[in-house]
Amino acid sequence: MNLVDAAYARAETSGFPLSCERPVGRLLATLAAGVRPGGNILELGTGAGVGVAWIVSGLGERTDVTVTSIELDAGTAAVAATGAWPSFVDLRVTDALTFLPTAVGAFDLIFADAQGGKIEGLDLTIAALRPRGVLVVDDMRPADGWPEDFVARQDGVRRTLLDHGDLVSVELDHGSGMVLSTRR
Questions:
Q1: Which residue, among 113, 151, 112, has the nearest Cα to 19 in the 3D structure?
Q2: Taking the chain (184 residues) in consecutive chunks of 10 residues, what is each chunk's mean pLDDT?
């Protein structure tokens, strides 16, 4: 079983319902493949490890990139940690809002898929991008059952990304709805 399928299986077995959709994962793999040698990739919200599995799959045989994935919930992080990760993957249990200020300008690709760094601290996530770094944010299209306040917060994230002076951004009607941004 490949890394991606194993991650989806872990998510299902553990009852983790919030893994990234396959279209989002394919985009992550595509973008990861283009990260420069010696580059750094960050995922905010490891979950069961599906997003990071897609990122690693995009790297193929490359080992010249560092992938860091942050998860706030220790129990969820423990599920992801059971994966067979290559040595260049660093899974951390920490608060993104504590980690991000230490990482200004450090990342070539960031997948913001957690409340910390996406709904709260989006400015810190943007600051963690290198010039020409790419930010991927999913769940930008409201889903049935989302509370109104969550819809409003997600729309605030969307508007911030599309209107931010340091970013060039595009909305993609892909997967759960995405905004793809590049830092100027």
A1: 113
A2: 88 84 93 98 94 96 96 93 94 97 97 94 97 95 85 92 97 90 98
What does each C-alpha distance from 168 to 7, 19, 33, 43 come to in angstroms? 32, 26, 20, 20
Neighbours of 115 (CB within 10 A): 16
Percent of the chain as helix, strand, coil, to the nearest 5: 40, 25, 35
From CA 84, how far away is CA 76, in angstroms rounded? 16
For each of the domains in the chain, give its residue range(s) and CATH number, in order of start: 3-183 (3.40.50.150)
Residue written as token pair 């290559």 = 86
pLDDT at residue 63, as a whole number: 94
Sign of CA dihedral 106, 110, 116, 122: positive
User: What pTM did the predictor assign?
Assistant: 0.95
Q: Report phi then psi at 36, rounded to 5.
A: -65, 155
